[in-house]
Write a structure and sequence with these properties.
The protein is mainly α and about 110 residues long. The chain is built from five helices and no strands. Helix 1 runs antiparallel to helix 2.
Length: about 110
């Protein structure tokens, strides 16, 4: 449904409550507002233990579309995590709670 936001879970609410105006504040890693909330919500749906297998391809396509949209304001590191399907790293990036461990692609060894 367009324009209808599902009720936020505790996971998503923990992030949006810390920001002024329900998520419009300045994120320390440069992802603000609706885009940040949309990515977090989509990652949360993907990680849901009761996710029906038939819903997974649609969620993956949605994340791929977000990462591949050249008009979006997604920072390079977050785009990299989403394109490589490193969703836990994407979540850590959005949480801005500390360093993100390097993977095996060689990018983190700079």
């Amino acid at each position: 449904m367009v324009g209808v936001r599902p009720r936020a879970s505790a996971f998503l609410q923990a992030f949006t409550n810390r920001l002024p105006s329900g998520g419009e504040g300045n994120h320390p890693r440069g992802v603000n507002g609706e885009l940040r909330i949309r990515i977090l919500h989509t990652l949360e749906r993907l990680a849901a233990p009761d996710l029906p297998p038939r819903d997974m391809p649609g969620i993956l396509r949605e994340l791929d579309a977000l990462a591949g949209d050249p008009a979006s304001d997604i920072p390079g590191d977050l785009r990299h995590y989403l394109c490589r399907r490193s969703y836990e790293k994407a979540r850590l990036f959005l949480a801005a709670s500390g360093p993100i461990p390097p993977g095996d692609c060689g990018r983190g060894s700079r």
